Every structure is written in C-alpha cells, then in structure tokens.
Amino acid sequence: LVADLESLLEADTLLSFDDISLFALNDEDPAVRSNAIRLLWESEDPHLVPILIHLLCQDPSDLVRAAAASGLGKFIYLGELDEIPPLLLKEIEENLLRTFNTSSNQEVQRRVLEALGYSSRKEVKTLIEKAFQQKDTRWLASALFAMGRSADRQWESQISVMIDHRNDEVRAEAVRAAGELELVNLRQALIEKATDMEEVWDVRVASIWSLSQLGGEDARETLEELLEMAEDDDEAEILEEALDNLSFTDDQHIFGFSL
C-alpha cells in the first residue's frame, strides 16, 4: 500500500499521505518504514525532524537508517534558507556527521553524505573530496550528488571530467550536478548527451533536465528538436516539462536571479 501511494505521489504532488506515512513508520517491516519515509518527501513540517533523527540513530534496519538520512537532507536545505531554527539545523547536521563516522554500513554513509551536500559546514567539503577519490563508483556517484546540492561552483572541474565516465550512474550524476550548479561551460557537453541516441536513457533524461536548468537559446533549440522527434508519450512529456522549466529559468536570468 505504501509503495503504491508513493507512485501516486510521484504522479500528482498535490496529494498528501502524511498521516498514513506517520502511522506506517511504526510498522514491523523495515521495507514499509523506509517507504513511509520516502512518502514524506514533500513534507516540510519540522516536527518530522526528531522522528527522522530517532530512526537514523536507533532503527535496527540499515535500510530505514539510510532512508532517514535521505529524508533529513531536505531539512538541511530548509535550514540553509533560514526556514527552520539554527539550533534544529545544527542538531540535524551533528547527528548526520556522527552517523557517518560511526556507521559500518556504506549505504547509510552514502545517504548521509548526500543529505549533507546541502550543508555549508566546512567538514562536508572534506567528506565530499574523500568520497570523490574512492574507486567505488557508488561513492563517486554520491559525491557528485552532494556536489550538485552544494550551490558551490568550485566543483566544476571534478564534475566536468565525470561527464564521460564509463559508469552510467556516475555519468548521470555528473550531468545532474552540472544542471543544479548551472555550469554553463558544460552546456555543449549536455547537448551532446541529450541528442546522443546511443546514450543510456537515464543519462539522456538527466541531460535534458539539466539543459532546462542552464537555459539559453541553444538549449531551447535542442529540446524543441528532440520534442519534434519524440517517439512516445513519456518522452514527449519529459521534454514538455523541461521546456516549461527552461522558460522559468530564462525568466530568472532576465531578472537577474541565479546561484
């Protein structure tokens, strides 16, 4: 049931299943608890923070602890925007950092790193750098994910060299990070990824959305051409949403808003 509700929420973000999600957090099945956390991804209620911290620190399942770490990332973002109290932000960061340093489960650690990507704390930069140096592509993907959340263009050189990485997940995360950080120097590389029909679909979709975040007339021309060639409704819908977002991006640039 919770998994089905998550699918409904992805299709219509106006829906809310917070009450049943909070109920499901007490289920005996770890899969249900972790799905319930994901079902709360739209909620910005700060009362969720102590619940997620408890699950992060106390739940016996690493699956649930990883999901709780991911869920806390949104509240770090809100804290950086001064939309939750500074003390609450500090509590979140301290618990995530403690978990990163004490957990023996790499999935939990990687989700913690991704959540901390939003944080402006100095320690986080060091954690991202160390993860980026790992040979394990899963750590590399998480490092790129965190870079994309950092709002810091200092990572451009690291992201640019990963655009053509042999691993599909790493390429996709590099492309997403380029869009999140509005790395306009990588626009042409993203156009090439978006129009390369031999590229895997996840990387192409990430490139399409990142182009919508970068803006620019060449990005618009690329997306419009791809829409004309779209072979199915799902692809067309993705491109239409990207074009809508591109219009929003270009409007922001006109009025001087950017990172």
Descriptive overview:
This protein has helices at 2-11, 18-24, 30-39, 48-58, 62-80, 86-102, 106-116, 122-132, 137-149, 156-162, 168-180, 187-195, 201-214, 217-229, 233-254. With 259 residues, the chain is mainly alpha-helical. It is globular. The N and C termini lie far apart (39 Å).
Secondary-structure map with pairings?
Layout: H1 2-11, H2 18-24, H3 30-39, H4 48-58, H5 62-80, H6 86-102, H7 106-116, H8 122-132, H9 137-149, H10 156-162, H11 168-180, H12 187-195, H13 201-214, H14 217-229, H15 233-254
Helix pairs in contact: 1-3, 2-3, 3-5, 4-5, 4-6, 5-6, 5-7, 6-7, 7-9, 8-9, 9-11, 10-11, 11-13, 12-13, 13-15, 14-15
Strand-pairing-aware structural class: mainly alpha
Distance between the termini: 39 Å
Number of helical elements: 15
Rg, rounded, reads 19 Å
Helix share, percent: over 70%
Query: What is the number of E strands?
Result: 0
Q: Main sheet, how many strands, which sense, barrel?
A: none
- Shape field: globular
- Low-pLDDT parts are none
Summarize this structure briefly.
By secondary structure, the chain is mostly helical.
Keywords:
globular, 259 residues, mainly alpha, 72% helix
